[in-house]
Each structure stands twice: as C-alpha cells, then as structure tokens.
Amino acid sequence: MQALVQDYPLTVDSIFRRVERLFPDKTIVTGPPGAVTRTTYGEWAERVRRLGGLLDELGISADGRVGTFAWNSARHLELYFAAPSSGRILHTLNIRLFPEQLTYIANHAEDEVIFVDRSLLGLLWPLIDTMTTVQHVVVMDDSDAAVPDDPRIRNYEELLAAVAPVDFHVDDERRAAAMCYTSGTTGNPKGVVYSHRSTWLHSVAATTASCLSIREDDTVLPVVPMFHANAWGIAQAAPMAGANLVFPGRDMSPEAIGRLLQEEKVTVTAGVPTIWQGLLPLVDDLDLSSLRTLICGGSAVPAALSEAYREKTGKPILHAWGMTETHPLGSVSHVQSRDAGADDETLVAIRARQGTPMPGVELRIVETGSIDPLPWDDTATGELQVRGAWIAADYYKPDEGVELSTEDGWMRTGDVAAIDRYGSIRLVDRTKDLVKSGGEWISSVELENLLMGHPAVAEAAVIGVPHPKWDERPLACVVVKDGESVTAEELLDFLRPKVAKWWLPDAVEFIDEVPKTSVGKFSKKDLRGKFADYTFAD
C-alpha cells in the first residue's frame, strides 16, 4: 500500500523561504572585531533574491558552476543560497590551494563566474587566464586592496543594485546544489557534488540533539572556512534553525576570534584543532560564559586540548568526524546517558573518540579487500566505510582507476578504526599514515595525542621512516611551547608507561612548526618529504 503523503521536494530554496519568512529579525554579523557589519536575515534575503537576478543577468547557464573565492561573510552566505536556489551549482574554491590546483579545479568544474573578496583578488587574478571557462570575475569589497583595470572585473554591490529580486523554485531535489574539492590527497583534487536533497537532510540532522544541536536561540560562529567541506553544513543548518550567525571575515587571528566570541556572546562555534590551540593561551582573559558548545573536527582532537578547554571554560570540546565526501558530518562524540556517571579518565577517553553516527548514516569496518564486516568490540580494526543519505557515491568526473565506493555500495573513507558495541568510532589512523613495523601497525594518531599531552609540547606529528630491518619505524616531529624546554629522552620516558615498547619512536626531531594543509590539518606528506632521507642513529 502506498503512503498518502505529499511529494515535497527537499531543496535549498525551501530552506531559504523558511529563513526569509520565519526569522527576518535574526542577525548576521561579519567581522573583524571593532569594525563589524550587521544585517538581518530579512535584509539578507532581499539581497539573495537580487543575486539570483544577477546570475541571470550575467548569463550563467541553468546549471552553471558559480565559483567563490572568499572568506566567511554575509556576502558569501548570499552566494551559498542564491546559486543553488536559482538552479545553479555553488563551487567554493579553497583560497589556500597551490595555483596549479586552483587552475585545475576551476577548469575541471567548468566555473563560469567567480565571486572573489577584494582582499583575495591578488591571489586569484594572476590565474584568470588559465581558467578557461570563467567569463566573469565579480569583486566583493571587503578591503581597499587594488583592483586591476580590466573589463572582466565587475563590482558586486553595483551589479546587485541594478537588478530586481527574483523568485526561486527548484523542483528536483536530486539536482546538484554545491560542489567541493578534496585537498591534501595524492594526485589531482577530487570533486564531490552535493544534491539539494542531501543538503536539506544534512542540515536537518545537524540541528538535532544527537549532532550539533543548533537552535533558534543560538549565536553561531563558524570559524571553519566556508570554502572547506561545505562549512561543515553550518552555513545552511544555522539559518534553517533560525540562529544568529557571526562570521570572522578576513581576520582569522586568535585575538580576533576571541574578541568575536566574547563581544557577540557566541553560544556555538566550530573549527579545526589548530584554531583552538591558537586561542587557548587567550582564554583566561576572555569572557566565554555564553559559550555552550565548542565543536572541533578536521583531524583527531588531542585529549589534552579538550581537557584544557574543560578546565578553563567548564566545557570540553565536542569532537566531530567527517570528510568532504560525507557532506561532511558523519559522527559526533557526545557522552551518552549510559556513561554519564563514569569517572573522569573514562569520560576523557569517550570525548576523544569520534563518536556515534548521525541519524541517516550507517557504518562498518572491514579488512582491506573484503566486504565482510568486522565485529564491533572496540578491538578489531579495519577500514571505516559508511553509507547514508548524504554520503558521496562517486567523485565528479574521476580520474581513471579512482573508485570511491565498494561493489556493495559503501563509501571507502581511508580511515582505520575500531567500533565499540554501541557504535562509537575510535579512529586508529588514516590508512596512508599508519606506520608498519615488523608486519604490525603503529597508530601515528595515538602517539601524537599522547605526545601533545606533555605540558611542554605544542604540536607533535609522527611519520613512518624506512628502516632496513623493520620496514618502517616511527619518527616523532615535535614543536615545543614558547618558554618551555624538553629533551627527546624526556619525551620517550613520558611515553613509555603509556604504549607498548615497540611503539616507541626511534627518534624525536624538534621542529619550528608542523606543516599544515590548506585547511589547517597536519601535512604528513610534507613531513615525509622533509625527512625522506632520514636515517636513525645506531
């Protein structure tokens, strides 16, 4: 028997209409601190409708790719909604990629227009002639940086003022809405396309208590860039919930982030571990009493970092896991009711896990080359694979031989994990970052988290270095905090009671900084290149 319910398309324009009608009085703030701009969702919505008209005026095709090269701002949010609500496809370009990667991505996606912040035009403009499908460059004034005299460059505000608002109506929820490209991978960046349906469902899930619990009474500051993994879905989920939004703009310094958190009374914020490590020394001098949830993802969150925030603010970091390919949220590490009375040590370990899958996501672990699930006993480890309502099935125009999904429809994550009996994920490592020593695997992530628990260590990254006898052995690359000192032997002594003897790094190298990817993760690839010829002392 067929269910008698309406066939209501789950589309981005329906989220837009909800925001426009229900929350016109709620606010959007764009930094930097001391010079913020403020608008309401009502004013923003009128501009979004004009932007839809502008895309028509520019002659962008019905499913044309609308590129953005911008910081987190109210203007960027206008593009987040106008492009898909008008049937086009939002394509956020990562401002921190190498020039060759940006050219490849713009051409691979076939961007027809790029909207760029004026402060970033100097990075983009030298590449324009290599971007063969880009017909227009529209500059959004966020600074007084110089603008070249070229007819292809247009001014955002002037164009917006000259067009009329339009109506939005997207019928097909499976139509493409946005696309992002992965970073830090081998080979060319890989495109991931999100549908209207997947975006709508991901946004709803993000507002639930089992995920990020974004509510109408929240003020949300996404520090995670809007050019990275769809801003973790926050740029759609917060408006859907009716929450106020605060954007940092072009000033991403710890001082600026701290001031915005304090002055705008932010209740929910999100960023990668390096953001919260940078802010930590300033926390004692900030009033963060309004803060309800501090979300961290992008890479494993060191337990020491989470506990430092718990001690200083009373609120530990909320650990989330996901990928560009998972839209990106896949799981969140809430302490569940069954563990509420556990001792502090147990709670620290729970909060350091990647947590349980969001509603709409299923997971399994398998041995390489197999589709047979391994047991959920928190001991067996295998590749983490996922499937669900917003999980990518394949890459956009993938290179030959690149396959994202298994033969039975599960997405390969490349992460190695264990899962406990209740479905809580504990990542062991990325497949490519495991250290294989004497036929056994050593988790670089676990060693890094332990090392960063030492009071003198600011950052630590562990890589595998070729070894004539053991295949590989771990090398610890350590950054010492300013004003602190520690020796390699002291660090090894710190590790000895915590890991098996054969897990101990064979050497510790002190470095000035762990290299980062374009989205702030540790770049193991760069470290492996730096120490490619490294030999351990006898």
Number of strand segments: 25
Integer tally of domains: 3
CATH architecture of the largest domain: 3-Layer(aba) Sandwich
The top level CATH class name of the largest domain: Alpha Beta
Helix count equals 15
Side-by-side strand order of the widest sheet: 2-1-11-10-12-13-14-15-16
Query: Quick one: biggest sheet?
Result: 9 strands, mixed
Question: Per CATH, what is the topology of the largest domain?
Answer: Rossmann fold
- Helix/strand-derived category reads alpha/beta
Radius of gyration: 23 Å
Unreliable residue stretches: none
Query: CATH-wise, what's the superfamily of the largest domain?
Result: ANL, N-terminal domain
Terminal-residue CA separation: 74 Å
Short key terms for the protein model shown above:
single chain, 538 residues, alpha/beta, Rossmann fold, Luciferase, domain 3, GMP Synthetase, Chain A, domain 3, 3 domains, nine-stranded mixed sheet, seven-stranded mixed sheet, 15 helices, 26% helix
